[in-house]
Amino acid sequence: MAASVPSIACIGIIGKHDNPLHISLFPPHDSTPGAYLEFSFLLNSSLDVFDLRRRDKNRVDQDLGLLHAIDERLSVWGWETGTGTRFAIVLDVWGREGIEGGRGVGEGELRGAFRALQTAYIRLLQNPFYVPDEHTPMAAREGRGKGSQITSRKFIEEVERIGMVWRPGMGNV
Predict the structure, then answer these.
(1) Which letter does DSSP use for residue 18 in this model?
(2) Taking burial as the number of CB atoms within 10 A of a residue's CB, which of 13, 36, 151, 155 is the most buried?
(3) What are the backbone dihedrals phi and psi of residue 126, each rounded to the nearest 5 degrees, phi first?
(4) Which residues of 78-112 are buried (b: 16+ CB within 10 A; e: fewer)?
């Protein structure tokens, strides 16, 4: 029996007001009915852990590591930018093949993916037509925002590329 290779099941970009800015699902989860809602709940449940880790006075890195394990298959890993934007990666240790019993992932193995996500987000912020304040719940409620989701095609394609190419042990994605 072949061992599975862990893969990214979901990438979530969460704004500083705890609003989801973008969620991407990856095979085999992207074709499962109700998966988007399920992963939205998983990402939402990680927000409390993000808040606890932010209060840690000894933290010197943006990589928050393992936030919580959902079950023997899925786990949520986190990264927080200096501006309070959070990146969460839901890792599937059974991989895209869904074979039980794959190897785990150690601390720091997702750093390359998180750095690539942060670079993509910085490039999005450098776009003069993207205004981050238009993607807050307050702006949307007042009718001056564009909704909470990031709609930049280039950013979404980069997030999807990162989720598809990442493998354990990759330094750069």
Answers:
(1) S
(2) 13
(3) -75, -15
(4) bbbbeeebbbbbbbbbbbbeeeeebeebeeebbbb
Q: 147, 172, 137, 166: which is closest to 77 by C-alpha?
A: 166
- Name residue 16's beta-bridge partners: none
Q: Which residues contact 50 (CB under 8 A, 6 or more apart)?
A: 14, 64, 67, 78, 80, 86, 88
Tokens for 114, please give them: 């998180």
Spatial separation of the C-alpha atoms in residues 40 and 172, rounded to whole Å: 27
Tokens of 126: 């450098």
Q: What are phi and psi of 39, to 5 degrees?
A: -70, -30
What is the per-residue pLDDT across 19-67, written as a single tens digit (0 to 9) for each? 899 999 999 898 889 999 999 999 999 999 998 887 777 766 788 889 9
pLDDT in tens, 144-165: 555 678 889 999 999 999 999 9
For 126-146, the pLDDT digits (tens) are 998 887 766 666 665 666 555
Assign 172 a pLDDT band (cuts: 50, 70, 90).
Answer: confident
Query: Length of the chain in residues, anyone?
Result: 173
| Dist CA 54 CA 42 (whole Å) | 19
Q: Tell me, what amino acid is at 104? A: G
The span from the CA of 43 to the CA of 10, in Å, is 9
